[in-house]
From TrEMBL:
<dbReference type="InterPro" id="IPR007197">
    <property type="entry name" value="rSAM"/>
</dbReference>
<feature type="binding site">
    <location>
        <position position="71"/>
    </location>
    <ligand>
        <name>[4Fe-4S] cluster 1</name>
    </ligand>
</feature>
<dbReference type="Pfam" id="PF00919">
    <property type="entry name" value="UPF0004"/>
</dbReference>
<dbReference type="InterPro" id="IPR058240">
    <property type="entry name" value="rSAM_sf"/>
</dbReference>
<protein>
    <recommendedName>
        <fullName>tRNA-2-methylthio-N(6)-dimethylallyladenosine synthase</fullName>
        <ecNumber>2.8.4.3</ecNumber>
    </recommendedName>
</protein>
<keyword id="KW-0479">Metal-binding</keyword>
<feature type="binding site">
    <location>
        <position position="183"/>
    </location>
    <ligand>
        <name>[4Fe-4S] cluster 2</name>
    </ligand>
</feature>
<dbReference type="InterPro" id="IPR002792">
    <property type="entry name" value="TRAM_dom"/>
</dbReference>
<dbReference type="InterPro" id="IPR006463">
    <property type="entry name" value="MiaB_methiolase"/>
</dbReference>
<dbReference type="InterPro" id="IPR005839">
    <property type="entry name" value="Methylthiotransferase"/>
</dbReference>
<feature type="domain" description="MTTase N-terminal">
    <location>
        <begin position="22"/>
        <end position="142"/>
    </location>
</feature>
<dbReference type="InterPro" id="IPR006638">
    <property type="entry name" value="Elp3/MiaA/NifB-like_rSAM"/>
</dbReference>
<comment type="similarity">
    <text>Belongs to the methylthiotransferase family. MiaB subfamily.</text>
</comment>
<feature type="binding site">
    <location>
        <position position="186"/>
    </location>
    <ligand>
        <name>[4Fe-4S] cluster 2</name>
    </ligand>
</feature>
<keyword id="KW-0004">4Fe-4S</keyword>
<feature type="binding site">
    <location>
        <position position="31"/>
    </location>
    <ligand>
        <name>[4Fe-4S] cluster 1</name>
    </ligand>
</feature>
<keyword id="KW-0819">tRNA processing</keyword>
Length: 531
């Protein structure tokens, strides 16, 4: 059972000697769902009186509270966690009163084993009881011992928790948690439980609240978004939700991730194509192109059905960019099976692909299958797959040269922007675009994060586009300053990257500065209560 005692006031988060408010840092490992969970963790810590570490302290991991939000899906998830913990052990010895908390999927899976392996950890909490974090930290500090609390089922729906948003101009909204699928390689259903759907009114209220705070882009999140509605008996609910969310005034870009090919229906394609704010982008996990391997994975679709979905999506949205996930070296995969994957990848023309080498995950059915492949075989096939996808991605990117695109300027996406004097953002189809600014452009006319810039693509690389059309003799460049850019400017002008009104909601628990308080969305309680 999860702790339900409310956290103490800001005094509980103050240093006993100086009275200064204690600082926190949330480090996120894993998927978009984890990123969004980290926003909730940061929001709860701020509500309990903690403050985000400064960028410099965050970079040096010099915070009073460090929370690591873990993943159990990625191959090196445990290595990343214990590498982080090993590094933090020395920091804790030199910083009296520092606390380390571990949450997320690996915490749900390994439980007390984390403290046994890293006894300097103060708190371990799972995916079902995010709300317990502030109380567990205070209890561990008071009792001078590690607190491990793992709930077996969802205690509080995460979206009802306080949230400190990572971005002021774009946000995540969870439509469901958990998963009802039984893929043999995946441990997510075991760690996050069965799918639980939020009521549509709650979701639309949260999207509306985000837009009201300045966001112009929202991404709907779920382990399998297109099964949304099954819990309350409406199999067409996801398509309806796309249309309703897309109609919210002020929202300019709506995305979602991730669907499952087995449940992806034509009404969703129609909703995407007929709702102008739904972006021409789709992440559709393939996993394998071999029907035999798909069967062994318990993926309830086959390669021809998968390709048929892509054909229908492109017929409705010719400019759609489609991305995917692929696993190489699943147990029993033969060279013929792998050749089928290469065939489907060639036919699919993915804009990009997240490719993984299969590795055994204790607790998954696939971990006990015979015919586990030698590492060198998996590595060689992986290299062939990535070579093929790199070629396709470059060809698809080159087809974008000469196109006019509208780019939502992002904060900190381009690692080389300072050296190249470009800014970076995402086109409607979610491709990464680095764009040049006209020479001598006055500061008051320069695009800010959250603004939209119209440019022409001049050059292509496999996984990004360059748009230097502003430097052409006849420049192709236009800035549309948005209320999202205004909100970003307001947050930045606050001195701590976010002090001020609700429109300045943003920041993250990964070191960027943020608002002085969490963003607490006032959500209606429609239908069944939060659970």
């Amino acid at each position: 059972m999860s702790t339900t005692t409310p956290p103490r006031t800001a005094a509980a988060a103050a240093d006993a000697d100086t009275g200064a408010r204690r600082t926190y840092l949330v480090k996120t490992l894993g998927c978009q769902m984890n990123v969004h969970d980290s926003e909730h963790m940061a929001g709860m810590l701020e509500q309990a009186g903690y403050v985000a570490a400064s960028p410099q302290d965050a970079a040096e991991e010099a915070a009073d509270i460090i929370v690591i939000n873990t993943c159990a899906v990625r191959e090196n998830a445990a290595d990343k966690l214990y590498g982080n913990l090993g590094r933090l052990a020395g920091a804790k010895r030199s910083r009296p009163g520092m606390q380390i908390a571990v949450g997320g999927c690996l915490a749900q899976k390994d439980r007390a084993g984390i403290v046994e392996r890293a006894p300097w950890v103060d708190v371990v909490f799972g995916t079902h009881n995010l709300d317990a974090l502030p109380v567990l930290l205070e209890r561990a500090r008071h009792n001078q011992r590690a607190e491990v609390e793992i709930a077996e089922s969802l205690q509080v729906f995460p979206s009802t928790l306080p949230t400190r948003r990572e971005s002021v101009y774009a946000g995540w909204v969870s439509i469901s948690v958990g998963c009802n699928n039984t893929c043999t390689f995946c441990i997510v259903p075991h760690l996050r439980g069965k799918e639980r759907d939020r009521r549509p009114g709650e979701i639309l209220a949260e999207v509306g609240a985000l837009v009201g705070q300045g966001a112009i882009e929202v991404t709907l999140l779920g382990q399998n978004v297109n099964s949304y509605g099954v819990e309350f008996g409406d199999r067409g609910a996801f398509g309806k939700l796309l249309r309703a969310a897309g109609a919210i005034e002020g929202l300019e870009r709506l995305r979602f991730t991730s669907p499952h090919p087995a449940a992806f229906t034509d009404d969703v394609i129609a909703a995407m194509a007929e709702t102008p704010t739904v972006m021409p982008q789709l992440h559709m996990p393939l996993q394998s192109g071999s029907d035999r391997i798909l069967r062994a994975m318990r993926r309830s679709y086959r390669s021809e059905k998968f390709l048929g979905i892509l054909d229908r999506v492109r017929a409705a949205m010719p400019d759609a960019a489609i991305t995917t996930d692929i696993i190489v070296g699943f147990p029993g995969e033969t060279e013929e099976d792998f050749a089928e994957t290469l065939r489907v990848v060639e036919a699919s023309r993915f804009a990009s692909a997240f490719t993984f080498q299969y590795s055994q995950r204790p607790g998954t059915p696939a971990a006990d299958l015979p015919d586990q492949l030698p590492k060198e075989v998996v590595q060689e096939r992986y290299q062939r797959l990535t070579d093929l996808q790199d070629r396709i991605a470059l060809e698809e990117s080159r087809a974008q040269v000469g196109r006019t695109v509208e780019v939502l300027v992002a904060e900190g996406e381009g690692r080389k922007d300072g050296a190249t004097h470009r800014v970076t953002g995402r086109a409607a189809d979610n491709r990464l675009v680095h764009l040049a600014l006209p020479a001598g452009l006055a500061e008051e006319h320069q695009p800010r994060p959250g603004d939209l810039v119209t440019v022409t693509v001049t050059r292509a690389a496999p996984y990004h586009l360059v748009a230097d059309s502003a430097l052409d003799p006849v420049p192709a460049f236009a800035v549309r300053r948005t209320r999202a850019g205004d909100a970003w400017a307001s947050r930045t002008a606050g001195g701590d990257h976010g002090a001020g009104d609700a429109a300045a909601a943003g920041g993250c628990g990964t070191g960027a500065s943020g608002p002085t308080g969490p963003v607490v969305l006032g959500l209606p309680t429609l239908g069944r209560p939060a659970h």
